[in-house]
Design a protein that fits this description.
Layout (H helix, E strand, L loop, with lengths): L1 E7 L3 H12 L4 E4 L14 E2 L2 E2 L4 E2 L3 H19 L4 E9 L3 H10 L7 E2 L17 E10 L1 H14 L3 E2 L8 E4 L2 E4 L2 E8 L19 E9 L7 E5 L1 E5 L5 E4 L13 H14 L5 E10 L8 E4 L6 E5 L5 H18 L19
Parallel strand pairs: 1-2, 1-12, 2-9, 6-14, 12-19
Antiparallel strand pairs: 3-8, 4-5, 6-8, 7-8, 10-11, 11-12, 13-16, 13-17, 14-15, 15-16, 18-19
Helix pairs in contact: 1-6, 2-6
């Protein structure tokens, strides 16, 4: 098989990059072994324009969010699926200080922040003694449906190899690469934290962390909102709710922990007034970065090896825009933003 690009990984990064490369007329092969507990598979799918305890705008959100919404709507039409929902996020303040922080930010952030007209309307669902604020619009992407449907599309096109990638089978040549039976102009790694183990990218400042979530059945809770009070309750697939997440920087493995389960259960019991059942407990390792900016581009010293990675917790918002930018970089030489181009690490990437 001879193609333009071999893409390793079919999470949100590999899905969006393969989508745009195919759209521009390039040929691709995607190699991926399905993992139901990958970071993309168990992510909440939320695109939130506001972040942090100071309620500031997410980096580049004015550009990223509308572009992402447009992209997911295009994918809905192309794949004949429903994956995108606009919602509001109700932020139930955890302390008087958080209530004050929200109130202080409100006059300067009227585009995304507001106070609901009736702040008492959720009294029968939740306990929230310190008030509630609203973040709107927030987008919710059904990542699992998107990834599975795109996977089926790749199968139909006969461009999916369902297997693990083995680095020792990769051969580099002056005009491209060879991997087993595939010849390509370039190979691009979209395989999350596994890319940090590759000799080409070991020196990149990955800051992988572990996240856990509980999947809950809460039949009486209205599903048009996302609810947050320390943890988030997000409408998820199969009428479940996603409750999470943790950010663990020190961990022995990527398995779910009893510590998270008990802590989250206690938070839910104090906050939620409705009956609920725990249906599953999931965990995964996120491919985050020290700078909280993604890695995109071709290796400065191995021109046939590229990476699109490090999306962290913002994969749904970052992936569409920067996958499109990367595809245009590959086809037309359009420069990547310096903040994401791995050429910013050319000194440490020197062999």
């Amino acid at each position: 098989m001879e193609v333009d690009y071999l893409i390793v990984g079919q999470g949100i990064a590999g899905t969006m990059l393969s989508y745009y490369l195919l759209q521009q007329g390039s040929t691709v092969i995607v190699i991926d072994q399905y993992n139901p507990f990958s970071a993309s598979q168990i992510a909440s799918g939320v695109i939130n324009p506001i972040t942090g305890r100071r309620f500031v705008r997410t980096w580049m959100i004015e550009t990223l969010m509308p572009f992402a919404a447009f992209t997911y709507k295009c994918l809905e039409k192309e794949l004949n699926i429903s994956i995108l929902q606009q919602a509001q996020l109700l932020d139930f303040h955890t302390t008087p200080q958080m209530h004050l922080a929200f109130s202080n930010r409100l006059p300067n952030e009227t585009e995304y922040l507001s106070i609901p007209d009736d702040t008492n309307q959720w009294n029968s669902y939740f306990n929230y003694p310190f008030g509630v604020g609203e973040i709107h619009p927030v987008w919710l992407v059904n990542l699992q449906r998107l990834l599975q449907t795109w996977r089926n599309k790749l199968r139909e096109l006969q461009v999916l190899i369902e297997a693990n990638f083995h680095a020792h089978n990769l051969q580099l040549f002056s005009n491209g690469i060879q991997y087993e039976q595939v010849s390509a102009k370039a190979i691009i790694f979209c395989n999350g934290t596994q890319a940090a183990d590759l000799p080409y990218f070991q020196k990149l400042p990955f800051a992988s962390n572990k996240g856990e979530a509980l999947l809950l059945n809460i039949p009486e809770l209205p599903r048009q909102n996302i609810y947050k009070k320390g943890i988030s309750l997000v409408p998820w697939q199969d009428d479940l709710w996603w409750a999470g997440s943790s950010y663990e920087w020190s961990y022995e493995n990527t398995l779910p922990t009893e510590v998270f389960r008990q802590k989250t259960l206690q938070q839910l019991q104090q906050w939620l007034q409705l009956p609920f059942k725990i249906k599953a407990h999931v965990a995964a390792e996120r491919p985050a970065t020290l700078e909280r900016r993604p890695f995109a581009g071709m290796h400065p010293y191995y021109p046939h090896i590229g990476i699109f990675n490090g999306l962290g917790t913002k994969g749904c918002s970052l992936a569409p825009f920067f996958a499109k930018a990367f595809s245009e970089h590959l086809k037309n030489g359009q420069p990547l933003l310096p903040e994401v181009s791995i050429r910013r690490f050319h000194k440490i990437l020197r062999p």
